[in-house]
Amino acid sequence: MSREKIELENKLIENGHEMQVRVYYEDTDFSGVVYHSNYLKYMERSRTEWLRHLEIFHTTLAEDDSAFAIHRMTLKFGPPAVIDDLLTVRTRLEKLTGARSYLRQEVLRIDKGGEEVMLCGADVEVAFINHGGGAKRFPDDLREKLGG
Fold it and tell me: Which fold would CATH assign to domain 10-146?
């Protein structure tokens, strides 16, 4: 548990993005550990910050009647995070198809020995859709920004 003052990082990495989050009291349950659904919030924020770094904005997509929607997500939980933990949320693009992106997301903590410990991992299938809910192909400019 680190108590030093640290500026939270938010940066692009190869094929993805990393951002740090701090565990706050509001993130925990009655036992003092991060409530399981909050890992999904951390991942959502990381996906959004990754898109913003790539200059892809949800508001701009909405103007084009487009959006991203989670189609499938498989989760695996490890040891819990607790209040004041500094976590890294890593998002990597694994594959891009006509209307889907496949991501690997991990919420990590550095242990006392300096090793990364996965607290929650997710394989995420994201559909690119129109506002009616139907899948639509990525436009070329969007595909290029995503690295496909």
Answer: Thiol Ester Dehydrase; Chain A (3.10.129)
